[in-house]
Amino acid sequence: MKHDLIVNQPVIATERFDLRPLRPSDAGMIEFYAGDERVARGTTSIPHPLPPGTTEAFIARALSDERTEDVWAMDGTKTDGPEVMGLISLERMDRGQCEIGFWVAPAYWNSGVASAAVQALLAANPLECRTVFATVFQDNAASARVLTNAGFEYLGDAETFSVARNAKVPTWTYSRKMD
Fold first, then answer.
1. Which residue range(s) make up the domain with 157?
2. Would you say residue 5 lies in a domain?
3. SS3 state of residue 100
């Protein structure tokens, strides 16, 4: 009998969905959504097209005891939605700092899912972050609104490499003090 690894990561409830740790069975839905060029182009790290095995390797890293990033699925099953509507993560940095990242499946864009997920994760603050940072591409005003509506303050412009775009892309950087 094979047992799935139990990750020490809380389930965080919202009214419409739960944020829960990833599980191997999420691979199909994550691959389906992450394989969408619109989703990949909104991230720094998702390649497009998505190579075979990428999703399984990502899930394995997310479940590893040595991980530096906790990843949650936006699971809508409690309201008859799908098991994965998107992903949200907190990456540990030094000095009590974290970086939040998220993507939402296109079917749930402009539905409040990203805002609810960000606000719930910040309210729970499971990594006890003192400051949370975020970066969004400047052509992604919707994600910038999610951050500012969650209390993030604009820090400045920068640029970062996008694997899917194979280019450096202008970004906006934000932070939120949690104290």
1. 12-177
2. no
3. strand
Band of pLDDT at residue 178, cut at 50, 70 and 90? very high
**Residue 149: inside a domain:** yes
Q: Which amino acid is at 56?
A: E
Give tens-digit pLDDT for 71-115. 999 999 999 999 999 999 999 999 999 999 999 999 999 999 999
How far apart, in whole angstroms, are the C-alpha atoms of residue 1 and residue 5?
Answer: 13
Name the pLDDT band for 6 (thresholds 50, 70, 90): very low
The span from the CA of 130 to the CA of 177, in Å, is: 6
Q: Say how many domains are in the chain.
A: 1
Asked if residue 158 has pLDDT above 80, the reply is yes
Tokens of 128: 């006890």
Token representation of residue 23: 């599980």
Count of beta carbons in the 10 Å neighbourhood of residue 154: 12
Q: Is 131 exposed, middle or buried (0-12, 13-18, 19+ CB in 10 A)?
A: middle
Place of tokens 């990949």: 40
Is 35 contained in some domain?
yes
Token pair recorded at residue 43: 């991230």
Domain containing residue 72: CATH number: 3.40.630.30
Asked, for residue 171, whether it belongs to a domain, the answer is: yes
